[in-house]
Structure formats: structure tokens, C-alpha cells
Amino acid sequence: MKLNRRTFFKVAGAAGAVALSPARKASASTAAPSLDASRRGVLVDTTKCIGCRACEAACAETNRLPGATMLDDAAAFAAPRRTDTVTLTVVNKAAVAEPARFVKRQCMHCVEPACASACLVRALDKTPTGPVVYHKDRCLGCRYCMVACPFDVPKYEYESALPYVKKCTFCADRQAKGEAPACTSVCPSGALTFGLRNELLDTARERLYAKDSRYVRHIFGEEEVGGTSWMYITDIPFEKLGMPTGLGTYAYSSLTQASLAAVPFVLTLWPPLLMGIYTFSKRRNALDAHAGEPREEADHV
Amino acid sequence: MSSPTTVPAAPARNWATEKLFLGMPFGDYLRSLATPGNFIAGLIMAVGIPLIAYRFIYGLGASTNLSQTNPWGIWIGFDMLSGVALAAGGYTLATSVYIFGLEKYHPVVRPAVLTGFLGYLFAVLGLMADLGRPWNLPVPIFFSWGGPSIMFEVAWCVCLYLSVLAMEFLPPVFEWLGWPKARLWAVRMTIGLTVFGVMLSTLHQSSLGGLFLMAPTKLHPLWYSPFIPAYFFISSIAAGISMVIVESALSHRAFQNRIDHSVDIDGIALGLARGASIVLFAYFFVKLQGVADGGRWSLLFTPYGYWFLVEMLGFILLPSMLFAYGARHGRVTLVRWTAAWTVLGIIVNRLNVSVIAMNWNVPERYVPSFMEVMVSLTLITIGVSTFRWIVNRMPVLKELPEYRDSASH
Asked: Is residue B28 part of a domain?
């Protein structure tokens, strides 16, 4: 085969078409700044939680899942539990004797969710007002969201032959109707406050920096993994609550940016380089054949 | 294109006898299949294929040891990650011969491309078993594009590259069918396909490593690195070369009547060993750079650190040295065993990243179930059987004399 101009343009053109395709445009949905004023969140004040587990019951009811509502308190608080496919939120007891502290766990609804940027079909998708929702009809079941999520939130229906991912939806459907999420609407103690994320941050700071405040001066979720919709304040160390540490304050979607940014370069630089080498090596082999002495491969390496 | 089988009865039988039954009457052909190798392969498939059906009927929970903590097992770590890395011989050899013009390696391009094609095909089949809803595979291609996802890049590249490999293998298929015009048309695509194949391979070989960039808190820091896409890409070259050395050695034993005895297969192995040695040496230092860059030296003296050193010294530096020694002193047997060792080392690396060093700080460990191992074994067996079926019929290991001078491919 001869490398002529037409062949070159055919290869280069195909490469360019791929490089310029709009596939990467979708990143806008996960890269929106966290300053969006309409973004909702929940402030979890663990000093106010009484461990009544009404939120668990409300969650099970609204999602029609049996889950952990079957457990009595003794069983529920015996050891830290994790969410599963039929229990989208759990309340755990902290590993400290006094004072008794409880912590509700569920999807954090990250500002820039790792799961959504991991998902190859946008089955997991960040909505502008906060909830990370799951479009189950698109899901392939690759479970990369589970690998990517730093909070181990997405759970898989392994027992089913037609499995889906299960996780808290932040009651996106209720929020769309102007209602609060089921769990926050039943909380009797004021431990869960649903509202605008920016205002909740102000509320949290007021409590943290009030006179005689016993709070740990940190809002978990303000900056963790680039910020989360669910934020926690407490008066005992966050590790004692079982919150993950060492997560970093960067959005996980930023971890793959360099790798993805290299794609257009691979697509545009490889073809001319390889075609150039091809032209060179073809000429070299032709000259060698002409000279009548077959050339040794680069044996000197 | 319509197959020649559609022409009337008598030629059809001849065609089938000649093309499919190796020139034997059907009864003789069936009897010729009764070999110990086929018996073992049949036994594995007889167990494995029902297990694949079982997985689809009863789900992943019933067939695998996957869990909420460990969502990826050996169907990803072995079938997909290792399978794709070991199938890299296709693009490595095609580039060496068609782009770099290293004609010496021409005799091993076709088997390398075939190994690559089957490697990808069975990696994708393994992936189908692993995916919860594999029938949704067209979704990322046609219906919903998750642009910022590394997995999206992998899906597209693997899909395209599987097609590229299939097209790269068309010339021997057309030679087998006796369609010279179609063959010429397929041969003309060689350079374009090779270049496209290098682009796609660069992207997805590295992206398979890039998948783990999203797991900084889960993958052990000695394996986690911002350079992990580079590790996967560089090691895929060594994996591909080593696989070609192993495969050509095995083919020359197994297909005595199919090979071209004039080909200097030892010289090819020694030349490839030289390349593999250099690539592994570079790979070793790039990996070392990752340790230095992350300030991870102290972690080397922990249990995971010792295992990391086994990989670094035993599976990367050692084979690099042995390849260099073997190539320099013409020790072909040493080179072949080193290639097999390197193949094992690449599998160890992929399993380290995806399974062994994954969730290292969590007590819940993953060990594959019997069914997972059996399904992987079955896919390999079907892959090897397909390779044998094709090599026994199509001009893969040997050029047909009538095509020898018509074109360089």
C-alpha cells in the first residue's frame, strides 16, 4: 500500500472526526459550580439526634422497602450497620459511651459525584438542585459507581437475575413536588434540617462558633470530596461517628481529568507520527531492496 | 456477501469437506476429533457452559463471591483486564511490521492479530457474564453518552478495536474462502487499520488502568498512582510481545503440519525478547517513579509492600534481565519461559490492582467462587479451541504460495 495524500487525509480525517465529536460535552452536568443558590442539602446535627430511627421507617415507607424497620433498637445499635439494597438509610450508634451519639448514613449526594462521573451511560446523574438520581433503564450493571463512590453508597441487587443499583434518591420526586425528603420531614428532634445548602452552611457555622460551643469545628461535607449535599456537625470526633476520613477536598471527577484530556492528543498526534514513520520505513526498505542487501533489524539495541 | 454454500448440492459438499472438515469425509473428520486435548476441552465446556447459563438464570449473587464491598472480581480482573493486556500483541506486532517495516516479524503478525481478536472477543464475553444487564451494552454506544466517564472511553475503544481486529484478520479469511478480490480490498485497509488500532489501543489499554484513578481511598497506595494509565499502557506492550513469544512457541509445537518450516521462529523470539526487555525495564522505572513520587517508600516494608516488591522485582525486573540475557546469548528456551513468566506477571499485576490490593484496608476479602473460576476457564478453553479451529483451516501460520508475492500483507 502506498501512502499518498488521499490516504493520509482519510486516516487523519477519521481521527479528527472522533477527536472533535461531542462525547465530552456531557461533563457540564457534573462540573457545575457548587455556588448554585438553588442547591438543596441537609444538615445533620448529631448532638440533637436521639436515635429514634423514625427516618429509617419513613425512608422504608416512602421507598416501599422492608429493610431495617424489622429490627428493634437493641439489634439495630449492636454494631454499625451499612445501607443495603432494601435499607437506603441507617442510623448507627457512635463508638463512645458518653454522651450517646447517633449518626444517620445515606447517600451524601455529592456536589460533584464520583458515581455520576464514573457512569458510562449517565444512569447516575446529578440534578441541578442536589439529588443524585438513578435512571435504571440505562444501567449496564458494570458496578463502576460502587468502585468510585468514596462512601460505598451504591448497592447492587446481586440476588436478582435482573439487578439494579439501589441507593437513596434524596426523595427527588418529593422534592420536585416541593416537599421535603421523607426522612427529614419526620425527624422529631431537629437533628435533620432540610434547606438550601448555602443557608445550611451558615446555620452550621452559627452553631459551631457560638459562645460556649462544644462542636468540633468542622462541617463534614462542606469540602469533603468537593462538597456534599448532606453535611454533618458533631461534638465528638468524626471518626468515632464512623465517618470516613482522608477523603480529600477535591472532587473525584478531577482525578480522571488529566487522563481524559489526553484523548484528543492521542487521536490527533498518533496518525501523523505513525504515518511519518511508515513513510520513512517504507522508503528505507525500498532503498535496501534496491541496494540488494537485505537490512538487518536494529540488532545493535 | 453470499457464501459459496448456496450453489447446488455436489459442489457444496466438496466445499464443506475441503474448507470445514480438513479434506476428510465427515465420518473421518469426526473420528479425528477424538483426541485427549479435545476430550479435556469438551469436559471443561460441558461443566462451564451450564454454569454460564446458571449465572444468567439465578444472577450474580448465586454464582459469584462478589459483594457490596468488592463489586469487581476475576471476571473483571482476569478476563477483562488481563485478557485485554495479553491481547495487545495484535497492535504491537502490526505496528512493528506494517508501520516500522520490521519485515523479520511478518510471519507472526497473523497469529498475533488472531490472538488479539480472540483475546478481545472472549474478554468481552467474560464482561457480558459480569455485567448485571449485558443486554444494555448498546446504551453507551447509541443511546446515552457518559462523556466524563473513563468507562465510556473503554467501552467505545474496545467496541471499535474489536471491529478493527476483525477487519485486520479479513485477509486470511478471504484467502481461505478463495476470494482474491475481497482479499485485495481487505489488504488495502491494512495501514489505516493499524494506525487506528494503535490509537484505540493507546486509549483503552491506558484507560483500563485509568478506571482505578477514581478509587484513591480503596486501592493500596503502592498500586494507586496518577500514572496508572501509563503503567497499564506500557505493560500491555510487554504483555503483548510476551504473549506472541509464548503463542508462537506453542503453535510451532502443536501445528507441525501448518507451519512454514523456513521461518526462523527462534530468531523472531530472540528479537522480540530484546524489545520486551527494554519495555519491561522502562516499566520498572516508571513504576518506581510512582513510588518515589507518592513518597511511598516506607510502605514497602509492610506485608503489602513485600507483595509489591515480588511484583516489581520478580515479575518485572527479573524477566527484563532474563530477556536481555537470553537475547544476547541466543538462549531461546530461556526467552520462552521468561515470556510465560511475564504473562503470569501481567496477570498478577492486573489482579493486584483490581482485586488483591483493592479494598486492602477493609476486613472483607474477596476470593473467587468455583463458578467464577470455571466460567473463566471455560472462556479460555473456547478461545483456544476457536484459535485451533481457525489455524487448522485458514492461512495463519503459513502464507499461501499463491498470495506470497501479490502484496506485502
From this structure: yes
